[in-house]
Every structure is written in structure tokens, then in C-alpha cells.
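Quiz preparation item.
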């Protein structure tokens, strides 16, 4: 009989660790898949499917960010397309209306996209301080639609000039703090390049964000 309580204590300890690990892993906070409406140039808030997300367009090419779709092939999705952004760099972001969210710990982002040419689609975020950042990790060109998953803990971030959509490399004298990933208010994407029609562009079908609600700031 004496070994039994010891065994039970061990099982309870393991169960507690598993429970804490499960609590630490965030669930799906939101998914944006765009409404199945006719193509629009530029994309408008009307095309956002999630009721708690607000669409924001950025950069000199923002007026040419298109919500696209084609009759053929039959499985062509409703997606964001940068091919018409020939006047300058562009970015799309989504602001989460219930408030900031926490991208620390096991937070991740998944999306389905397809790039062409030298385009590589990157994450952008805005923190509660108002600063914008762009990820060093990216999703490069593909011959077909592809699902990409980003573990946020593995990403390094550079500051982003949200007016020009150009990354800002730190200088030796730069003392700017890293992004506060526990208090993110907007998330989105850009390829940091102009559009080059179908042969040099980025496409995003849907995006999922797995995160906790942010702690009080």
C-alpha cells in the first residue's frame, strides 16, 4: 500500500504539468478569410468577414491593394493581392477591437498564401506604444497556394516605417526597446516591395492568430 500514494502523487504532478502547459498554449483568437464578394480595388472594410476586426491599409501603394477572385479555376479563393501596387510599397493590417492580445509564449500565426517573383510575405505588428515592426521570417514564392505557420517566439523584429513600408535597421547608437509582444493591437502583412502584376506579387487567402488576450497594461 505505501507505494500507491507515492504513485498517485507522481501522477498528480504530471497531470498538473500537462494542465499548465495546455493553459499556456493559446487557442485561436481570430481568423480572417475575407467575404465572398466581387473583386474590389482597393479592398474595403466591407470585405472583412470577422465582426471584431478593423481593416487598415498602409503605404504609398495602399490604393491599389486588391481583393481578388476569379471564376476559373473553380476553387480560386477570395484573397488579397498586391500585383497592382505599382506606385509603391504596401501593407495590410487588422486591428482587434476587443483590445490588445499577447503574442508571447506559444503564440503563432498561420496563413495560406502564394507569392510570385522575388516576393516574400512578412508579418507586421503594431504594439500598444504605437510602434510598428516587421518580421525577419517570411513566406517566399510558391507555384501553388501553401499554408505557412510562424512560431512568434522564433521571430526577430525590425522597426517598420508605416508610412513608406520600409524596414529600419538599427544603428550602433540605437537604444530603442524590442517590441512588447504581450500588448499587440494590430497584425498584418507586407512583402516590402511594389507590385509587379501576376508575375511579381503576393497573395493572402486567410490568416489565423493564436494568442492570449493581453494582460492589463
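Solution:
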Amino acid at each position: 500500500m505505501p507505494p500507491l500514494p507515492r504513485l498517485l502523487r507522481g501522477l498528480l504532478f504530471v497531470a498538473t504539468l500537462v494542465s499548465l502547459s495546455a493553459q499556456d498554449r493559446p487557442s485561436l483568437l481570430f481568423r480572417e478569410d475575407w467575404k465572398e464578394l466581387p473583386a474590389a480595388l482597393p479592398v474595403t472594410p466591407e470585405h472583412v468577414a470577422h465582426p471584431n476586426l478593423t481593416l487598415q491599409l498602409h503605404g504609398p501603394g495602399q490604393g491599389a491593394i486588391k481583393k481578388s477572385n476569379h471564376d476559373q479555376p473553380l476553387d480560386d479563393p477570395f484573397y488579397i493581392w498586391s500585383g497592382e501596387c505599382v506606385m509603391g510599397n504596401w501593407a495590410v493590417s487588422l486591428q482587434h477591437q476587443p483590445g490588445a492580445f499577447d503574442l508571447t509564449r506559444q503564440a503563432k500565426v498561420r496563413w495560406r498564401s502564394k507569392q510570385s517573383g522575388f516576393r516574400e510575405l512578412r508579418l507586421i505588428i503594431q504594439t500598444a506604444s504605437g510602434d510598428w515592426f516587421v518580421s525577419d521570417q517570411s513566406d517566399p514564392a510558391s507555384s501553388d497556394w501553401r499554408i505557412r505557420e510562424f512560431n512568434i517566439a522564433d521571430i526577430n523584429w525590425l522597426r517598420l516605417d508605416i508610412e513608406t513600408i520600409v524596414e529600419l535597421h538599427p544603428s550602433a547608437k540605437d537604444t530603442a526597446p524590442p517590441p512588447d509582444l504581450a500588448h499587440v493591437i494590430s497584425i498584418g502583412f507586407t512583402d516590402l516591395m511594389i507590385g509587379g502584376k501576376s508575375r511579381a506579387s503576393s497573395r493572402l487567402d486567410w490568416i489565423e492568430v493564436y494568442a492570449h488576450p493581453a494582460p492589463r497594461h
